[in-house]
Amino acid sequence: MIMKILRMRIVDGIRTSFLCVRIMENVTRKEIEDPAFINECVEKNFAFLKSLPPIFRTLVFQRNKRELRVTSRNKRALRVTSRNRRVSRVTKRIRETNESRESSSPTPLTSAAV
Asked: 24 and 18 in contact (C-beta within 8 Å)?
């Protein structure tokens, strides 16, 4: 039922947007479902977007806003917080102990040295 209502709104939007075009008088369901046809209509006249319910526009803008936030977050420099400092101190100590163990342990004999 929802798809039928949406389809009817789209057809009405197409008809009102393209009153001067004779081809648009008899728009079929297959034409509406064809993405190329819809893209062509949108490129020719943005009044077609008025036929879409507001929820679809908000969903598109929310998705774009979310993507923009993610990309800006990735570009932003890492903030230094007390937790980050604490973690970096711990990892620094672990690295130091690992390096000291490696340098103090005797080198293993290899087949070339024997």
From this structure: yes
Query: Is 0.70 topped by the overall pTM?
Result: no
The pair of structure tokens assigned to 9 is 């709104």
Side chain identity, residue 114: V
**d(C-alpha 74, C-alpha 1), whole Å:** 42
Q: How far apart are CA 31 and CA 8, in angstroms?
A: 13
Q: What are 110's two structure tokens?
A: 């290899």
Cα separations in angstroms, 67 against 55, 61, 63, 95: 18, 10, 6, 37
Q: Are 84 and 49 in contact (CB under 8 A)?
A: no
- pLDDT tens column, 16-65: 666 655 566 677 778 777 778 777 766 766 665 666 666 666 666 666 66
User: What's the chain's Rg over C-alpha atoms?
Assistant: 31
